Amino acid sequence: MMNEQFQQALSVIETLKRHGHEAYFVGGAVRDYILQRPIGDIDIATSAHPQEVMAIFPKTVPVGIAHGTVMVIERGISYEVTTFRKEGRYEDYRRPKDVTFVRSLYEDLQRRDFTMNAIAMNEHGEMIDPFGGIEALKRRIIETVGDAAERFNEDALRMMRALRFVSQLGFSLSTGTKQAIMQYGHLLQHIAVERIAVEFEKLLLGPFMSKAIELLMETNLFLYLPELATKKGELAQLGASSLVPAHRIEAWARLAFVVHFDNQQLKKWKLPNHLIRDVSICLKALEHIRSLADWTIDALYEYGPYIPHIERTRAALYGDEPHVSLLMKQWEALPIRDRKELAINGHDLLALFERKSGPWLAEMIENIERAVLHRQVENEKEKLKEWAVCNQRRENNY
C-alpha cells in the first residue's frame, strides 16, 4: 500500500496515462519509500513532452522547460514532472551540451547517477529496477549506474553526492565507485564552488558524517575542496562527536572551529553573507564558552537567539551534553534581552542632563544597560533617570 504522499500524487500519474502517456514516480522519493525514510518532494517522469504536460494540466509552471521539467500544481501541492530524456556529451565535467527527449523509461533511468536513484514506481506500487538499485539498497551500497568513470566524467559533482549519501544513509561505496573517486577527484576543480558547498553542507549535517569525512580523506577528495587541502589532520577530528548538527549554522561553525577557518576562508566557499555572519558570532562565543559554567549573565545577554547553535556546537566539540533548554530559560528570565527593551533612551538622557550628544551618551546607555541586566536597578523610566543622575555624580566626584 502506497503512503499518503504518493496517494495524493497519483492523480498526476493517472491524468498523464489517461492522455496516452507513460508516467512513473522516480528518484529520491522512491528510494526513501523503499528505505522507509521520510519522503521529500515527489518527482514524476513521463513520456509526455513539456508542451503536452502544460496542455493537460490547468496549473503549471515551466521551471526547467529546456531540460524537460514542468511544475504541475495539484490541490495546492507542487510536483516536478520531467520528460524521459537522455543527455548528450557533457561540457566542463558538469552539464550536458544538449538534452534529447525520449519515449523510453529505460533510457531515462540509464542516465541517472546511482542505482538507488534509478528506480521507478508505477501507479500500482510496482517497482521498475533495471540496474539493481533495490539490491544495492538491501546491501547498503552506493554504486553508479553503469561505468563509474563515465558518470563522474559527465558530472564531477556526483563524487560529492556519493559521499553526501554516505553521510545521510550510512551506506558504503562500491569498490568501483570508490576507486573512480580516487582516480577522478581532481575533476572537482571544474565544478562551481556553490554547487560543491551545497553537497558538503548536507554531508556535514548527516547522521553518518564521520564515515563520510573518513572517505573524504581516504579518497583524497578533500584536496579539491576550498581551503581544506592542508587540513587533513583537523578534518580527522571533525567526526569525533556523535552529536549531529541541528542547523547549517552549527555545521559550518563546527567545521570552522576545528579547521581554524576565519571569515575570509568561509567566503571562499561562496556562502551567503548572513550565514558567514552567524557562524562568526558562534565562533566568537566559542572562544570563551567551553563549559556550562562559562554561560555568564553577560554571555547569555550577548548571544541570546544564538544560544542553541552555540551550545550544541560547544557540546559537540568538548564531548559534553547540550543544555539548550536550561540556557534558553535563563536567557528568557533576564530583566532585558535587548537594549531596545530599556525604558529609557538617548533622547531622555539628553533632556535629563541638558547636554549635547557625544561619547558620554553611548557610555551612559551602556552603563544603564549593564545595571538593569545585573538587577542593580529596575527597568522603569523614573528609576533609571535617578540611577543615571547618581551614577554621573559618582563619576564626577571620582
Low-pLDDT stretches = none
Physical arrangement of strands within the biggest beta sheet: 3-4-5-2-1-10-11
The CATH architecture of the domain at 1-139? 2-Layer Sandwich
| Discrete helix count | 20
Query: Quick one: CATH class of the domain at 1-139?
Result: Alpha Beta
Average pLDDT: 94
CATH topology annotation of the domain at 1-139: Beta Polymerase, domain 2
* CATH homologous superfamily assignment of the domain at 1-139: Beta Polymerase, domain 2
> What structural class should be given to the helix and strand makeup?
alpha+beta
Count of extended strands: 13
Strand residue percentage: 5-15%
Radius of gyration: 28 Å
- Terminal CA distance: 81 Å
The backbone outline, from C-alpha atoms, is elongated
Approximate helicity band? 40-55%
User: Sheet with the most strands?
Assistant: 7 strands, mixed
InterPro entries: Bact_CCA-adding_enz_type3_sf, CCA-adding_enz_C, CCA-adding_enz_firmicutes, NT_sf, PolA_pol_head_dom, PolyA_RNA-bd
Subunit structure: Homodimer.
EC number: 2.7.7.72
GO biological process, one term: tRNA 3'-terminal CCA addition
Please describe the structure with a list of short key phrases separated by commas or semicolons.
398 residues, alpha+beta, Beta Polymerase, domain 2, 7-stranded mixed β-sheet, two-stranded antiparallel ribbon
